[in-house]
């Protein structure tokens, strides 16, 4: 069976709480795989079983026993589980957020010492077997690390975690090795399908985590290329720096640094851009949305810009047609746990969709976000947002402003909705709060769908006169 995600390629961003304008921690990612492969958005309720449960992957032979208590958590699984669940991102009842995965690559030299495990854990299973069973971001790293050490992993990946206190980025190398770094509170990180973690400080377990035997493994297999032998650069030991990285991966990191740290001097093909960066301003939720929806605007490399044909197709953009969904998992430490987490979800292509805010404390998701089908259906969220983009695509110059106006209007409306809801939380019991947040989520989901259906109607009406079969008669005839 061919795994449907064999060529998945995402873009991620992490923002520390002191790097954001409102004190939020944000972990975000575009889930890129296929141009027409719908996603659902679901909430799994808290469950307590009489005996241990088990998980068996439809993607490969990975199997694992699971604890009796499964915490409530949200997720965005595939429209079909034929090839596996791929739940991808969510927030659990303890306020832990997780996004999995950012596909990366281990170099051949390291793989020769520790090959990937065909039936090890992969992207398909990570959310399902980790997120419902951890109470902090650090516990999430630790649980996934133990699973990788014991079962191995079938892929090289980067995984994002956050809670009300901190954000972590974890990467795997080879079949059984891994490291993780706590993103400094005043920093942000951008990752694009390339091993990103650099120096590991083994004397600082508060800010770094690692597989217990990784140092001895690297030493015994002579994997460290450092001339001095005194540093441990995970990117250089396990990662790649190939020609494909220079047109597929590094330009996306370059564009992120260009937007948020313009004083840094890099080119799109630099191989040594830092993972940890400081922005020239406090970042907002809209900054992260703009990044996930970007395609090198303001540079010659924008596919719908004014550069040469060669430049417009030189580098792989951040937002592209193969995005299934984009998400920003925002944790607001000053809010009650049920209302602290917001899962901003853009179905389809981030550049053409809109990020709808969903409080993590809700009990259900709108029916339009459940039971998606593999072919177009007008009553499904994924296909509604996808249709708007498809209608704009052939006439971007003429129709793009209509799309942009709708997106701007919704941003304002969603922001107003969240602020009003936040002011109404005081005095509500847990049950009342859950019901209230569910109501707000349904209203915002419908607000987005109504606006896009109105946009679609407008686009279709306008497009009727953009046919190549048009003919203008000479007024002198």
Structure characterization notes:
The radius of gyration is 22 Å and the shape is globular. The chain starts with 10 loop residues before the first strand and ends in a 14-residue tail after the last helix. It has a six-stranded antiparallel sheet. By secondary structure, it is α+β, with helices and mostly antiparallel strands. The protein is 31% helix and 18% strand. Residues 1-7 have low confidence and may be disordered.
List the helices and strands and how they pair.
Layout: E1 11-15, E2 25-32, E3 42-44, E4 47-48, E5 53-56, E6 63-66, E7 69-70, E8 73-75, E9 89-91, E10 97-103, H1 108-113, H2 123-130, H3 137-151, E11 157-162, E12 167-173, E13 177-183, E14 188-191, E15 208-210, H4 214-220, H5 234-238, H6 243-248, H7 250-260, H8 285-292, H9 309-312, E16 323-331, H10 337-340, E17 341-347, E18 356-359, H11 381-392, H12 396-422, H13 430-463
Antiparallel strand pairs: 1-2, 1-14, 2-16, 3-8, 4-7, 5-6, 9-10, 10-11, 11-12, 12-13, 13-15, 16-17, 17-18
